[in-house]
C-alpha cells in the first residue's frame, strides 16, 4: 500500500471511528447478560435505507461471540425493515462458526480470525465454484478484566500479562506488577486466571498480541485453542466474564462490552507510549485504523499491528469477519445474505457499531467490503 494511500486511510478511519461520550454496552457473547434480549440499548431501530430486495425466508448463521451485540442490533433493525425475513445468528465461537460454514449448514459464519489455508481448502467443497473469503465487519478491543478488591486503575504490560496467563506470576503483589503500579497497595492474594475453554478467535487474537510483544514470556503459536498450562477454563466470553465478576483475585480476557455491562474494571496497557492506554473503543480504533489488507482477490483479511506504540492506541484488538463464498453461495439464501450484509456494511449499519461501543471498519476498507458483497453470486 502506498504511503499516501495508507495515510489517507488512517485519517479517514480515525475521523469515522471516533467514539464520544460514555460507552453504553451490553454482552456480546454466547449468553445474554443484559436485562433485555436484544443487547445494546435493547431497542430496535427500523432502518429506512435497508434494501430487502430478493430477501426471503430464514437465514442461518453462526460463529463469533465477539460480535453478538452488534449482530443482535443488526438483526433487529433488518427484520423490522424486511417483513417475513428471519435472520438467526447462533453465537458460539469462531471455531464452531467455521466448522458450520464448511459443513454447509449456515449462509455465513462469523470469525474473529481470518480463515487458515486448510480452512480455505475445505471451503471449496461447499463453495463449488469459489472459496471462503473474509469480509471484515466489526472491530473492537479485547479487554483484560480483573476483580481485585481495593485496587483501581491497574496497569500491566505485555510481559507481565503473558507471565500471569502462563502461570509464571501467581500473586497480585508480585514485584513485576508492583513496579507498574507504584503507590498502589497490592494484596498478597493468589491470581485466579481464566481463559476460554473452547476454540476462540478472541484467544487467538490475544495470542497474536502476546506473541508480537512478549515472545520470550509467551512462546506459543497464536491458535484458537488455549495453549498455556494452568489457569481455569470457562465457556464463551460470557463464562470468562462471569467468573471474573464473581471471584476476588480473578483476571480474564473478553470483549470490552462484557466489562462495561457488568462493571468489571479493565487493565490499562503500558505499550511504551507516554502513558498507559485504556481499553476503549476510541483507543482500539486508533490501532485498527492502521490495518492493511493482506488478503488477495476478493478476500479482505487484515493485518493488524499488535506491537503499536502509537500514543493512545490500544493494542489488544480484534476484527470479526463474516465468512462467505466468493462464488458458489447457496441459491436459496444468496439474496438474503447479500441484502443483510449490504446493510451491515452500510454507513447506517456501521453507525450502529459506534453507538454500541464497537469500532467500525475503516471507511476505505469498508468500501471494498460493500463492493465485494454486491458481487457475491
TrEMBL record:
TM ranges: none
GO molecular function terms noted in the UniProt entry: phosphate ion binding
A Pfam family of this chain: PBP_like_2
PROSITE patterns linked to this entry: PROKAR_LIPOPROTEIN
Record keyword Calcium present: no
Signal peptide location: 1-27
InterPro entries in the record: ABC_phos-bd_PstS, PBP_domain, Phosphate-bind_PstS
GO cellular component terms listed in the entry, alphabetical order: ATP-binding cassette (ABC) transporter complex
Residues annotated as domain PBP: 55-348
Keyword Hydrolase recorded: no
Residues annotated for phosphate binding in this entry: 64-66, 94, 112, 200-202
Keywords: Phosphate transport, Signal, Transport
GO terms of biological process kind: phosphate ion transmembrane transport
Coiled-coil regions listed: none
Protein family per UniProt: Belongs to the PstS family.
Record's protein name: Phosphate-binding protein
Species name: Streptomyces qinzhouensis
